[in-house]
Amino acid sequence: MNIRQATTADFETVTGWLAAARLPVADLSIDDMQHFLLAEADHVPVGTIGLEPFDGIGLLRSLVVVPHSQGGGAGRRLVAALERQAVTHGMRELWLLTTDADAYFTQLGYEAVRRENAPESIQQTTEFAKLCPADAIVMCKRL
Ligand SMILES: CC(C)(COP(=O)(O)OP(=O)(O)OC[C@H]1O[C@@H](n2cnc3c(N)ncnc32)[C@H](O)[C@@H]1OP(=O)(O)O)[C@@H](O)C(=O)NCCC(=O)NCCS
Which residues, 6 or more positions from 83, have their beta carbon under 8 angstroms from its beta carbon? Predict the structure, then answer.
């Protein structure tokens, strides 16, 4: 398993995976690939994760692993790699929204937070404001 930076050439693959997993894609552009990582198994892309950076914090988003590769640790490695990248960029917290993977993120050290306690920058993301249902769980991890 290898984790690498995504490139603009990965945009169609990434958005295809996200759409298939019913995760938000409408607010993504090809330029956002600079903030995405890709997991590869035997040089074949099997999963992705994205970061929306703000001042000192970030939104972890778009975590998906293709069905035939799930359960092999790709998701965990993608999260760990994104956390390392966030630390490198001086971020002290990562935030995320999820409708059904809260138990997964709890195992990785994320804690549920009341929506209204999320920082303003996170509340103003498209994912927070529009793309996720109002009952999506907001989670945070201090890095
Ligand atoms: C969530 C997801 C990224 C995990 O990736 P993965 O590579 O399969 O995960 P890992 O191999 O790191 O971890 C596997 C473990 O997580 C558990 N797990 C996977 N999805 C889970 C979920 N939604 N809730 C709770 N646990 C989950 C598995 O049961 C497994 O447990 P085990 O180690 O005790 O057997 C993947 O299942 C996926 O793409 N799901 C669809 C998209 C999605 O829900 N993304 C999250 C959006 S916020």
Answer: 94, 141, 143
Q: Which domains does the chain have, with CATH numbers?
A: 2-142 (3.40.630.30)
- Coil, helix or strand for 32? helix
Asked if residues 120 and 72 have their Cβ atoms less than 8 Å apart, the reply is no
Q: Which atom of ligand 1 is closest in space to residue 77's alpha carbon? A: 12
- pLDDT tens digits, 68-121: 999 999 999 999 999 999 999 999 999 999 988 999 999 999 999 998 899 999
Residue 57 and residue 38 in contact, taking contact as beta carbons nearer than 8 Å = no
For residues 62-67, give the mean pLDDT: 98
Percent of the chain topping pLDDT 70: 97
Q: Which of 39, 41, 43 is nearest to 62 (CA)?
A: 39
Who lines ligand 1 at CB under 6 A? Answer: 21, 23, 63-65, 70-76, 98, 100-101, 103-104
CA distances in angstroms from 124 to 20, 27, 54, 59, 110, listed in the order given:
25, 13, 11, 11, 20
Q: Model pTM greater than 0.85?
A: yes
